[in-house]
Amino acid sequence: MNHLKDVPLAKAYLLLNHGPSTIVTCEHDGVANVMAAAWVMPLDFDPPKLLLVLDRNTWSRHLVEGSGTFVIQLPSRQQAELTLAVGSCNGGETDKFERYGIATSRARHVEAPVVDGCVAYLECRVVEEPHNQQSYDLFIAEVVAAYADERAFSNGRWHFPNDDLRTIHYQAGGAFFATGEAFQVARD
Questions:
Q1: For the chain, what is the total number of helices (H) and then of strands (E)?
Q2: Does 47 sit behind a cis peptide bond, omega within 30 degrees of 0 on the bond before it?
Q3: Cα(first)–Cα(last) distance of the chain, in Å?
Q4: Which fold has domain 4-178?
Q5: 3-class DSSP state for residue 68?
Q6: Flavin reductase like domain spans which residues (predicted)?
Q7: Which residues partner with 15 through β-bridges?
Q8: By CB neighbour count within 10 A (0-12 exposed, 13-18 middle, 19+ buried), where does 178 fall?
């Protein structure tokens, strides 16, 4: 976690704009969970907000509704196996942190663990929207802190120095692809 650098909150959306798979951590009353989530997207700039689809049948949903907070993490390619594992079992039935030997630290501004070794983190507080949450499993959250591994994200841009630090995208059935090469197009 020594390569982490704060990302200005107004630029936090840049961490998610390329549509990576994410890991969500949450905690309520001393009970924590970790899960994978593919449906996370930026929503607003100032204050920064994001959307998270959190199925009502997940253990994480229970914890997020209790605490009102969660952390979105962007795993790297070397964490694809972990991402699949935490997305494939129920945290209400097993302690995933213990089962998979997940190293964690504490979030900076919300009460939750963070998975060590991810390339970016967005700490979030839920914006209560009961209709959206109950009808669509859709959570709106304000990003209260954002930080990223400066080896892979700096000056508002992703730049992957090696394949291990690339973010990942989940397709289905255990199939992922890694974020590709960045390129720029000049505007007229």
A1: 4, 14
A2: yes
A3: 40
A4: Pnp Oxidase; Chain A (2.30.110)
A5: coil
A6: 14-160
A7: none
A8: middle
Phi and psi at residue 14, to the nearest 5°: -65, -25
Average pLDDT over residues 170-175: 89
| Domain boundaries, given as residue ranges, for the chain | 4-178
Q: Nearest-5° angle of CA 91, CA 174, CA 20?
A: 80
Token code pair at residue 168: 């990942």
Q: Which amino acid is at 48?
A: P
Q: Which two tokens stand for residue 188?
A: 């007229």
Q: What is the mean pLDDT of residues 33-59?
A: 94
**H helix intervals, the chain:** 59-67, 80-86, 96-99, 130-136
Q: What is the pLDDT of residues 122-158, one digit of tens each?
A: 999 999 999 999 999 999 999 999 999 999 999 999 9
Structure tokens at 182: 């960045």
Give the rounded distance of the alpha carbon of 129 from its chain centre: 20
**pLDDT of amino acid 1:** 58
Question: What 8-state DSSP symbol labels residue 116?
Answer: T
How deeply is 146 buried, as exposed, middle or buried, from its count of CB atoms within 10 A (0-12, 13-18, 19+)? buried
